[in-house]
Write a structure and sequence with these properties.
The protein is of the alpha+beta class and 229 residues long. Helix content is 33%, strand content 37%.
Amino acid sequence: MPDEGPVRTILRMRAREGCAEAFEAAWRVAADEISRTPGSLRQELIRDADDQQTFLIISDWRDQEALDAFGPSAAREQLTAALRDLRESGEKNTYEVLQTVVGHGPRIRVRVTVTVPTGEEAAYEKAYRKVAERMRGTPGHIREELLTLSDREHTCCYRILSVTSLAVQNYVSEMRLKPVTEGNTTFGEWWAEYDVADQDAVSVHQVVSDTFRFAFEGAEKVAREKRMK
């Protein structure tokens, strides 16, 4: 195995009869702790579709050194202790990872604001949707899912389902518009939360910030052109 590069461990365990749910719960507690261990990239629990008592515990690590350091750690002892009495058997294998999936990292919130004249909220939202529609089909386009939409509150929330050009996971974003009495304007807020690996945090933060800014500027331009007609 190379001295450097990510590695993956696959631990096959069979839970005792009637202990499958307890096994899953114990794994979630331990995995949450392990995910904060230096070098931990990802934790995953998979259940056999044909045998509800059999599970695969998959762990991705930055390199062999990180995995070796985890071996005698308190987090590993916690996992072992939590699952020991719930399993019938266990078998572990370690593999070299040829293609890496981005793992657990710091959660980042990005906020971009924009001011819209009072009474132009609906036009702004319509303009924003037009800009978003124009972006469809462009290289690096992201597949998203709308979670909530309120015309009354002028808010929308969505999540990213798939993206190939941005190294993020669990991406959820929300936009809201609020009237500002002074100045007869509107306060616009757009934020996002996501998981990103340490080495990608700075570049991803910049991409998300620029995306919000460009979208706001584009929507503002469309709304301004409409007012001039």
